[in-house]
Write a structure and sequence with these properties.
Number of helices: 19
Order of helices and strands: HHHHHHHHHHHHHHHHHHH
Distance between the termini: 33 Å
Strand content: under 5%
Helix content: over 70%
Shape: globular
Structural class: mainly alpha
Largest sheet: none
Oligomer: single chain
Radius of gyration: 21 Å
Length: 433
């Protein structure tokens, strides 16, 4: 094997490892949904407590992403990546073996902590481990496809595993994947440099972690702690302005563009999924199996957008302009979807929104990666991922609370996506290569 062939093989193996990890994190959010009734029956959850089987994971993940990003930049991406995989795998094992509600919820929270370490570490490894240009575009494209596929497979796979082996299987299935990936990481990933010395900004880390956790917790639980979370995040921003080594990167216009785009993007996409689900099952009377089959065109279009269109478009016009195109196309197609709500056949033309969402999703993170130096990739990726997560929860809640029809909510989602395109263009993403 020649040296270039060996390099391509090594690069391909690294990309497969990172894609599998993204698939694992994306799948774990959806995979428990179908298993919830069985979990509630076997472990004795009440109706209110059962939602925390999902929320314990998402609250820990959303609240600790920035801290995970800081750890990635300070301690090294490979070290944090391996630690996140081991933590995720062991927590999955504990969850599958849980015999009480408390043990299962603890395991799910620890899974979220593992995912909060894995996400920024993976983004940094993508940003610095692949050559600038087409190679890096392809890496982000494969990563985007893995996320889209994981989200699509999670719900269907959870149903199959639960019916065949019981609810425990939806947690145990991730154990061998996580632990094998952790064992392969030191072989396939480049070694980290020395740990970065200097202050860790512990006050900023505490305010960001507690503030974002309370914000996410309040959104999930619809409680007043949202206000406290906002106050603490405001205090965090004040502390960061004076910190000698701030946790938050200096947010330039180039980084602000993908951060705000991610916030608006997930509000629009989350609303679209909610509207389609309620239309299919509550209005049209689709069974769970029929609704899953109805989603297949969305999954195919999303994967095509991320895996085929994005890398080609980014190579031609740049990742920043691709982000603007993806968001604009998403907005227009969501308006078409809103006009077709009511019947499956009339909704189908609007399903093209999934193609544009597949283009926009990797473009957001690729544009963010181009906005900061390699030493800040972890926390920059974590910032955009936090905006994405919070945007999904807040956008859906605001649109549903402020509109009285599915049509109006659909138009609101379209407006969010078009606003994201405008923000990205005005703040300079359209000029980013």
């Amino acid at each position: 094997m020649t040296a270039p062939q060996a390099r391509r093989a090594g690069t391909g193996a690294r990309l497969v490892l990172l894609a599998v990890t993204q698939f694992l994190v994306a799948t774990d959010f959806d995979i428990v949904f179908v298993a919830l009734p069985s979990i509630g029956h076997d472990l004795g959850f009440d109706a209110e407590g059962l939602q925390w089987v999902v929320s314990a994971y998402t609250v820990a993940l959303g609240g600790l992403l920035l801290l995970g990003g800081r750890a990635t930049d300070r301690l090294g991406a490979r070290r944090v990546f391996v630690s996140g995989l081991v933590l995720f795998g062991l927590a999955s094992l504990a969850g599958g073996l849980a015999t009480t509600p408390g043990r299962l919820l603890t395991a799910r929270a620890v899974q979220g902590i593992g995912a909060a370490l894995l996400t920024p570490a993976t983004l940094r490894l993508l940003a610095v481990g692949f050559a600038e240009g087409p190679e890096r575009n392809r890496a982000f494209a494969v990563w985007g496809v893995a996320g889209s596929t994981g989200a699509a497979v999670g719900a269907a796979g959870g149903g199959l595993l639960t019916s065949a082996f019981g609810w425990e299987a939806v947690l145990l299935v991730g154990v061998p994947v996580a632990l094998v990936a952790a064992a392969l990481a030191p072989v396939l990933l480049p070694a980290d440099g020395p740990r970065v010395r200097g202050p860790f900004d512990l006050l900023g880390a505490a305010l960001a972690t507690v503030g974002s956790t309370l914000l996410v917790l309040g959104i999930v639980d619809r409680s007043a702690v949202v206000g406290l979370g906002v106050v603490l995040l405001g205090a965090f921003l004040l502390v960061e302005r004076r910190a000698p080594e701030p946790l938050l990167p200096r947010v330039s216009r180039a980084l602000l563009a993908p951060t705000l785009a991610a916030l608006l993007f997930m509000g629009a996409v989350g609303t679209a999924y909610y509207l389609i689900t309620t239309q299919l099952q509550d209005v049209l009377g689709f069974t769970v199996l029929q609704a899953g089959a109805a989603y297949l065109p969305l999954s195919a279009l999303s994967m095509a957008g991320a895996g085929w269109v994005f890398p080609r478009l980014a190579a031609r016009i740049g990742a920043g302009r691709t982000l603007v195109v993806g968001m604009a196309g998403l907005g227009v197609s969501l308006a078409v979807l809103a006009l077709g709500l009511g019947g499956y056949a009339t909704m189908l033309p609007g399903f093209v929104w999934a193609l544009f969402a597949g283009i926009a999703f990797p473009a957001v993170f690729r544009t963010a990666a181009a906005a900061v130096p390699g030493s800040r990739q972890g926390v920059a990726g974590a910032l955009v991922a936090t905006a994405q997560y919070v945007g999904g929860a807040v956008g859906l809640a605001v649109l549903l609370a402020s509109t009285d029809t599915a049509f109006a909510a659909g138009l609101g989602a379209a407006a969010l996506a078009l606003l994201a395109a405008l923000v990205a263009a005005v703040l300079g993403a359209g000029r980013s290569r």
